Amino acid sequence: MKEIFNYPEEEMEKCIISTEPKIAVFIDNRSPSVCFDFGEETVAMGVNEKDEDITREVKFCTRIRYNKTDYDALVSEIIKSEYSSDKIEAISANYTNIIDPNPVIEISTEKREEYINEWTKLQQLRVKAKQIATIVINNYNNIVNRDGK
Length: 149
Prior knowledge:
Radius of gyration: 20 Å
Order of helices and strands: EHEEEEHHHH
Helix content: 40-55%
Strand order of the largest sheet: 1-5-4-3-2
Mean pLDDT: 82
Number of helices: 5
């Protein structure tokens, strides 16, 4: 499951296993987690007595808990963090229809472009998920030894 995780930067920096793409892995008492898609944004915290906005910079990442040594499960979890199984099935069906020389349903040019874009984004996520999973699995022993587990 995907979590948007507001992390303490000094702790996360100790867990970085890759800088391009930036990936951090840590193990807590529940399970290993992989963090990626790091970012920052300004969050409104309220208004002070002078009626001025109070904001704070928040650092965040996508965090997924995963099975320690299962590459396929980690790839799947990363993909499922963005797409449900039903959505993947719909994207696949739509794409299959547009590449079929004898389509079941005629599709407008606009819909065709939309379906191609959806398919492309899904494929890009699959490549990214495989890249992240490979880095995590290849570094698993170092992670376990680092965390003293």
